[in-house]
Amino acid sequence: MIKITKAGWLYILITILLGIAAVNTGNNLLFLIVSALLSFMGISGYFGKRNISKIDIWVEFPEEVFAKKEFYLTVKAINKKAFMSMFLIKVPINNKSVLIPYAEKEGEGKLKILVDKRGIFSIKEAKVCSVFPFNFFERCFTVKVDAKKVVFPEPKECNLFQISDYKFKAKQKSEGQVIEKQGYEGDFLGLREYNFGTPVKYIDWKASTKSENLKEKVLSAIQSTPTIIEFEKINMDLESKISCITYLAVNHKKFENTFVKIENTIYNLQDKSDRHKLLTKLALYGMKDEAIG
Amino acid sequence: MKLSVENIVKINAYVGSLFIFLLIFKEVSLAYSFIFIALYALSAYKDFKKPLNINRTFINIIGILFVILLVLRINPDNIVQPSVETLLVLLGLKLLEEKTFRDYMQIYLLIILLFAGYTILSTSMIFLLYLLVLIFFINASVILLTYYQQNKEIEVDLNIIKRILIKTAIIPLLSIPFTIFLFFTLPRSNYPFLNFLQGQGKATTGFSQDVKLGDVSNIQEDNSVVMRVSGENIGEIYLRGLTWNYFDGKQWMFKESFSAVKARRLFGKKHEYTVYLEPHSDVYLFTVEYPYTISQISGYFITPKIDKTYVVDKPIFNKIKYSGISFINDRYYEELKTKNEYLQLPKLNESIVKLAKDLNGNNEEETAKNIEKFLKSYTYSLQNLSVSQDPIYNFLFVKKQGNCEYFATSMVILLRLNGIPSRLVGGYKTATYNQTANYYIVKQKDAHVWVEAYINKHWIRFDPTPAVRNAIIEREKKLNKLKLWLDTINYYYTTFIVNYDFSKQVELFNKVKKSFSDIKDFKKIEFEFNKNYLIFTVILLLVGYLTFLFIKYLKQPYEKRLLNILNKRLKKYGYERNENEGLEEFISRVENTELKQKLLTFARELESYVYKDKKLSKADYERLKRMVEKL
């Protein structure tokens, strides 16, 4: 594909004008200038074409890519020509483009990209464009790239534990949200109304005498009890549910001992490969290899 | 060091503008030069020193005013110079503006247009050099401009810029042969109708219609080339330009005569020649004495005059070419109806009349020879010429020195006083011959006047100027080698480039066509080719291939070279490395433990470079290479 730029049209126009002047004055020096202009057009055309030929494009994604979160895509251009470097290579992807000013064998640029939806983001082919050498013509040609990347769902903060019946208490701390899990071994956290079922030894008799009702001590848990979140049973719409679990996976450090169960597979949030599998599962949940991008 | 491409582009715009200004400076009036210099200085101050805010609309209005002024100034006789001046001012205004990609492009465009204008004003050979410089300069500038256009803030390492510019210099380099090819093949017209625009610049002034005594001496100190006359070397030649028949005591004039020539005959050795005449802004053509005929000149209409000179219908402002046939002799036969116009005399001092009588011989020819001989005893000089009320008296009796005009004029007067019709002839006299390219170089300083006396129905040439002139000229004639060589190039430039036209193009095409039709005799050529050139071609191809391999080898990184050496060595032991096989994996297959150990040491060493992205230096390479070779 070749597009003539404004400067290119101007150049052509001037060449024609000087050509007319040369023919009509019979001035050989003007003929020389016109010849030079014409041969420049030809040679630059050849070099322009050669410049973008024999180039492979590779793209590299960061390890984890989330929907609606900008990330940097590394675009590499590999020059397979023996005797010519690459000049001003432009690779447009997703309405933006990477510019590689000059490289002999390999050049790269980074591109900020935002993907809207979870799923598989694939770049099947890329255009290699250049206005080299004179910005008179823009030439492009398409190369196969075939890069695929699973885009993980957008993580969205949610308080799964309040929605469900788990008895946790969220406590705000200045550095962020930390959930102190309640248990029966740790520090004293506070008092609450006695619930039937709590062992009698946790009743705070002193406090109970001050009020009319029985009070029990709330202690923190030293080791939290394992929590398994059953994905299918969460009572939310699908996308929120997916985003919510993604949030847990991303902020896995806050959720010790938490497991997620989807389609009879249990994923441990603390395990890297499990977490990766979970995120992939979530990314592709309900999709039949449907590619986006 | 990182450089902002925008800055380089900006500097280039200034350098290019200055270059083109210096080129056309001579052709531009002082006022416009001054305006341009002022604009240039202001722009440079604004761009490099202190930003000034100048309204774009204001600049554009000034530009339009200058264009209107151009329209008012222009007339068919003077189109190019005002246009060039206006373009120059527009260039200055453009520099003053706040510049974006578009503006830089326009600046380079104006530079090219000004250069095109320059070709019309001047046809000197140095144009080729300027063209070459400009081609490389514009190429580099536009490439950088393209970078700038792609990314306004782009900053590139100085080394990278150097590399980009060196590598892209191949574009102008390659375009040179194409330019030459296109130059010869681009369609040309037989009748260029804007021919009058040609050479509106200042051309060298030669002779004029009316010539005062001493005028020619001004020309004679000018070292510029007037014309080149190609043809056989026949020794000294006289190039006839114009004649004068009326002398008022101080000044020679040509009075149109109505006397017809009844018959005329030329005799002598036939000589064919071609004249490449530089623009001299006058209508005279110069021919080798005595001319029989000359060829047509495209764009001009030639009139042969009664005194065996030729003029064209308009001043010659471009380089032209014509061929002629002449008969080399010192005389030609002509039957005049009346001789009166060649006997006119101004008021003369008595002593001159007496001198004329003293020089009278037995017949007219003898008288003429006496006069010539007498005058030759005088001194030739270009300085201290006699310019009094009666310059001829002053020359003959007081100063006794002068240049050719005084000698020739005195001779005509003395002849006429003796009743011999005579006239003054102006032109050039030279013997400077370029042996390499076979042509005479004629310079302004070869300008000369001599005498023709009408004796026995023959016009006979007499040259009373003493040979000292020749001695002076002779000294100059020993042109140094370089000058001669340069002039040879200039000659070819004039012949093949400046004077290339439609007819030459047709001639060239026919030649090419003919050489192709010759190839139709294919069998014969092929046979000859096989016999003579086959071995040569094979050797050439082989050398080319080996060079290619060598370059390829040199381009390989050191790591790869080492691996290649290693692989070759191990192949000798019977181990062949598979494709995609890792180095250590490969080594593990080696059974000999001693060898294996050595190999592993080498591999680790090499890997320490490869995996740490350290660059192998030449010394490292040599060390590792020795390691392999010891295996």
Can you tell me about this structure?
By secondary structure, chain A is of the alpha+beta class. Chain A has three domains: 152 residues, Immunoglobulins (Immunoglobulin-like, Sandwich), CATH 2.60.40.10; 98 residues, no CATH class; 40 residues, no CATH class. Helix content of chain A is 28%, strand content 39%. In chain A, strands 1, 3, 8, 9 and 17 form a five-stranded mixed sheet that branches. In chain A, strands 2-4-7 form a three-stranded antiparallel sheet, with no helix packed on it. The longest helix of chain A has 25 residues. Chain A is rod-shaped. The two termini of chain A are 23 Å apart. With 631 residues, chain B is of the alpha+beta class. The radius of gyration of chain B is 37 Å and the shape is elongated. Chain B folds into three domains: 194 residues; 285 residues, no CATH class; 76 residues, no CATH class. In chain B, helix 1 runs antiparallel to helix 6. Chains A and B meet through helix 1, helix 2, strand 5 and strand 6 of A and helix 5, helix 6, helix 7 and helix 8 of B.
Key structural traits:
heterodimer, A: 293 residues, alpha+beta, Immunoglobulin-like, 5-stranded mixed β-sheet, 3-stranded antiparallel β-sheet, 6 helices, B: 631 residues, 7-stranded antiparallel β-sheet, 6-stranded antiparallel β-sheet, 21 helices, 17% strand
User: Count of helical segments of chain A?
Assistant: 6
The number of helical runs of chain B is: 21
How many whole angstroms does the radius of gyration of chain A measure?
A: 33 Å
Tell me the series of helices and strands of chain A, N- to C-terminal.
EHHEEEEEEEEHEEEHEEHEEHE
Helical percentage of chain A: 25-40%
What is the assembly state of the chains in this entry? heterodimer
CATH superfamily of the largest domain in chain A: Immunoglobulins
> Main interface pair?
A-B, 43 and 60 residues
CATH topology name of the largest domain in chain A = Immunoglobulin-like
What integer is the average pLDDT of chain B?
A: 83
Over all CA atoms, what is the radius of gyration of chain B?
A: 37 Å
